[in-house]
Amino acid sequence: MNPAKEQRHPLYHVDRQVVDQLLLSEPDDYALAEWARLYIRYQNFPGARDIQRDLAQVLARWAMDVEAVFQRTRVIHQQGKVYRTRVITQEDWN
């Protein structure tokens, strides 16, 4: 039997940068939401083992488990503020 072929996710480079930031972050609303989003994306993905490993490392550093993150992110997303821009940096001239 041949082992499954490792794939490269099309968003790997962007996601790698986010994971690198998560490795240094505290579990604030944004970091938790990003961790959960990437965990869902990569949990059954046949590749990007480094991202999967680093997401587990972030979780251990935060002393949390997957369910605790999902409980908190459900509340965060219900409030609907995590991905909104905090400061409007562009004027609308239309």
Question: Can you characterise this structure?
Answer:
- The chain is mainly alpha-helical.
- It has helices spanning 12-22, 29-42, 49-61, 66-79.
- It has one domain.
- Helix 1 (12-22) packs across helix 2 (29-42), helix 1 runs parallel beside helix 3 and helix 2 runs antiparallel to helix 3.
- The protein is globular.
List the helices and strands and how they pair.
Elements: H1 12-22, H2 29-42, H3 49-61, H4 66-79
Helix pairs in contact: 1-2, 1-3, 2-3, 2-4
- Alpha-beta classification: mainly alpha
Mean pLDDT: 89
Q: What value does the Rg take, in angstroms?
A: 16 Å
User: Helix proportion of residues, in percent?
Assistant: 55-70%
Distance between the termini: 61 Å
Tally of separate domains: 1
Q: Low-confidence parts lasting 5 or more residues at pLDDT below 50?
A: none
What is the helix/strand order? HHHH
Number of helical regions: 4
- Would you count the extended β strands for me? 0
CA-based shape: globular
Strand content: under 5%
Mind describing the biggest β-sheet? none
Oligomer: single chain
Write a compact overview of the structure shown.
The chain is an all-alpha fold and 94 residues long. It has 4 helices and no strands. The radius of gyration is 16 Å and the shape is globular.
